[in-house]
Specification:
By secondary structure, this protein is an alpha+beta fold. Helices cover about 50% and strands about 15% of the residues.
Length: about 300
């Protein structure tokens, strides 16, 4: 062969190699940037034209394949080109048959038992009806005896009268208040013992303190109630401001025969009785209108006293 023919063959082989290389590069670029190309096609509207000409099956198949690859699941669609199958009638298993037979037997037993119960009830009703129809000797004797009504009994009327008296005599303008007394426990220690008394609604705090100064009643004393407030103590005045009740007592209030312990107990009784009302938090003590620092037994009363102080 001539040199020209050899050169032509080399050129054609080189050209084919270059074209093959270009096609491979294009395929690689297409595979790598397939998503970007598809997005550009979607934006430019080229996919709509291709779908009209070629159809949506190519893109749908690609989407299905991508979803299966991403999820890692193998999806096999058997609905395409598959023949419709007719539903097969379900057959009961032997276990189900045994259950249904047991149910039917239990139902039959229940019906037999219910029929027996109905027959027994009918017999009992018939026997009671025959008993009702036949009058007994006791009923005949009862008919002969005179019947005594409740109106003829004097005890009922007297009880009714006493009830009406207690209801009408109850005062309507009073309220319950707690009065603080003390008692001695088994170890000989002084403990608080509160009782409830009725006081007037107009001035409940003043009335409660007056009840405290009276001391325990006879029935309360039987339960162990005592008072360490000196005899002859009187409440001269009372005022409440900002939760502090200023109580003015006479001179007898500051002298206690039981020493400092008795003075502390008497102050505690007054404080707990006064602070049982929601408007009072602390108590300031006055003696004959004067604010003293100490009582005669050296107990401090120069500042308001509350429950936390005892």
């Amino acid at each position: 062969m001539s040199e020209k023919g050899k050169n032509n063959k080399k050129k054609t082989g080189l050209g084919l190699a270059i074209w093959i290389l270009l096609i491979l590069i294009i395929l690689i670029v297409f595979l790598v940037k397939q998503e970007e190309i598809k997005e550009n096609f979607d934006k430019s509207g080229a996919t709509a034209l291709i779908e009209k000409k070629i159809g949506k099956e190519i893109f749908d198949d690609k989407k299905d394949s991508k979803k299966s690859e991403d999820s890692g699941e193998i999806i096999i669609d058997l609905t395409k080109n598959s023949k419709k199958t007719e539903p097969v009638a379900k057959t009961d298993t032997p276990a189900k048959k045994e259950i249904t037979e047991a149910k039917s037997e239990s139902k039959s037993e229940n019906t037999v038992d219910s029929s027996k119960k109905d027959s027994n009830l009918k017999k009992e009703q018939e026997s009671t009806e025959t008993k009702k129809d036949k009058p007994s000797a006791n009923t005949i004797n009862a008919e002969k005896k005179p019947v005594v009504t409740a109106k003829s009994s004097p005890s009922v009327t007297s009880a009714e009268k006493t009830v009406t008296k207690t209801v009408t005599s109850a005062p309507a303008n009073t309220t319950k208040s707690k009065i603080c007394f003390v008692a001695l426990d088994s170890d000989g220690l002084v403990v608080r013992k509160e009782v409830s008394r009725s006081v007037a609604k107009d001035s409940p705090l003043a009335e409660a303190l007056k009840e405290l100064l009276k001391g325990p009643s006879a029935t309360e004393a039987k339960t162990g109630c005592q008072s360490y407030i000196p005899e002859g103590s009187k409440l001269l005045g009372i005022s409440i401001k900002d939760g502090i009740a200023t109580l003015n007592f006479n001179e007898e209030f500051q002298f206690n025969n039981y020493g400092p312990v008795g003075s502390n107990v008497q102050l505690m009784q007054v404080v707990y009785t006064a602070t049982s009302f929601s408007t009072v938090k602390k108590v300031q003590f006055l003696i004959e209108g004067k604010k003293l620092d100490y009582l005669s037994e050296g107990v401090w009363v120069g500042s308001p006293r509350g429950r936390n102080d005892y």
